[in-house]
Design brief:
Elements (H helix, E strand, L loop, with lengths): L12 H20 L4 H16 L12 H8 L12 H15 L15 H4 L8 H11 L4 H14 L10 H4 L8 H4 E4 L1 H9 L4 E6 L5 H15 L3 E7 L7 H12 L3 E4 L15 H8 L3 E5 L1 H7 L11 H5 L6 E6 L12 H8 L10 E6 L3
Parallel strand pairs: 1-7, 2-3, 2-5, 3-4, 5-6
Antiparallel strand pairs: 6-7
Helix pairs in contact: 1-2, 1-4, 6-11, 7-11, 11-12
Length: 367
């Protein structure tokens, strides 16, 4: 493995995340929630700790305290600005729940601090409208519809509450620049691979709520109706749906073909090379895993400094199933590019790795 991306790297997006983006997330959370003074102080203390202090362990009594004590131990008493990037982000979100008393009895128990940002996405004129338009416009033939829905699932990754680039590049609707911005496109290979198999399980590892997860559910519905999958596991999802899609999804769930599941691993600081045995076994039984989003791509590659020309299978390592990663670029790592392409993209757009303009559909399939 190459060395991990660190929050201490000057000028990096990782350093910018910890010194600018995360403090902004805390500020916005304070603005959008009517917290009492003690919760406001807790969030302000967390903000100050990140910018100029040392990482402390969880102090609250909570169901996951023992696990987080083990997982965070290597980084406790280190600066937030000198640890592996993904680990810092994962622990930050857990500390946000501690600061807002998410697990504690009282008025803030199970109250999502990010709900004020999520709810507008579920308004009828936002994500459900987008899905209606997507389903109306998608081709009717199987291969064309699969490609269209896979593309929509990819570009929906721009709808990211922590790094929302949809205001600049759109909410995931088809765009004339999409083909030029799709740096790697294995969609046709994935369609041929699924068509060559008897219908089997497809696991979708979801990333964001709102519009992105609705596009993922539209893709799930198509995979089941077209018999490209016998069963779809959609992991860690939430949201509402357009009316017709809702009825079909409910039927899929009632019939046991659409299974919604979660696991403690998804919010942990671990990488996919460190899968717990039960989750490894679940993926191993899948005909295909669809891995969504930038954070999951980073976890797949160990959030490390891979050269961009390294082949995808080498960077993936020992993942237990055939895989396709759908991701818009919002972090400084990518693999599988031809020699010289990264340099040309950097000359064309210095922010190409992090601004969300470009995407990939990158597969590792049996030959």
């Amino acid at each position: 493995m190459p060395p991990p991306i660190m929050t201490s790297e000057p000028g990096s997006f990782a350093h910018h995340t910890m010194t600018a983006r995360i403090p902004r997330i805390i500020d916005e959370t304070l603005q959008l929630n009517s917290y009492p003074p003690e919760l406001e102080r807790s969030l302000q203390d967390l903000r100050l700790e990140i910018l100029s202090g040392l990482i402390r362990p969880l102090q609250e009594i909570a169901p996951d305290r023992r696990r987080w004590a083990l997982l965070s131990r290597p980084h406790i008493t280190r600066s937030w600005l000198d640890v592996p990037w993904y680990c810092a982000e994962a622990f930050f979100y857990r500390r946000m729940l501690e600061a807002t008393r998410y697990f504690q009895p009282g008025p803030w128990h199970r109250r999502d601090p990010f709900a004020p940002r999520k709810h507008p996405e579920l308004a009828p004129d936002a994500a459900p409208r987008d899905v209606d338009a997507l389903l109306a416009a998608a081709p009717l033939d199987t291969s064309g519809r699969f490609i269209a829905l896979l593309d929509a699932s990819l570009w929906g990754n721009r709808l990211d509450l922590s790094h929302d680039v949809s205001k600049t590049f759109g909410r995931g609707e088809p765009d004339s620049d999409d083909a030029a911005n799709l740096l790697l496109d294995d969609a046709a290979s994935v369609q041929r691979y699924l068509s060559s198999l008897k219908p089997g399980r497809v696991s979708i590892i979801a990333d964001n709520a709102g519009g992105e997860v609705l596009a993922d559910l539209a893709l799930s519905d198509f995979l089941l109706d077209s018999r490209l999958a016998a069963r779809v596991d959609v992991l860690a999802v939430g949201g509402q749906h357009a009316a017709a899609l809702t009825r079909r999804l409910k039927a899929h769930i009632d019939e046991g073909r659409l299974v919604i599941a979660t696991h403690w691993f998804y919010t942990s600081p671990l990488y996919f090379r460190e899968l717990p045995r039960d989750l490894y076994a679940r993926y191993h039984r899948a005909a295909l895993v669809i891995l969504k989003g930038d954070a999951n791509y980073r976890r797949l590659l160990g959030d490390a400094h891979w050269p961009p020309t390294v082949p995808f299978p080498r960077a993936v390592g020992s993942f237990p199933a055939p895989l396709v990663a759908l991701r818009t670029l919002k972090a400084e790592l990518i693999v599988g590019l031809a020699a010289g392409r990264a340099e040309r993209l950097a000359a064309e757009d210095p922010e190409w790795l992090v601004n969300g303009r470009r995407g990939i559909i990158q597969a590792w399939l049996p030959s």
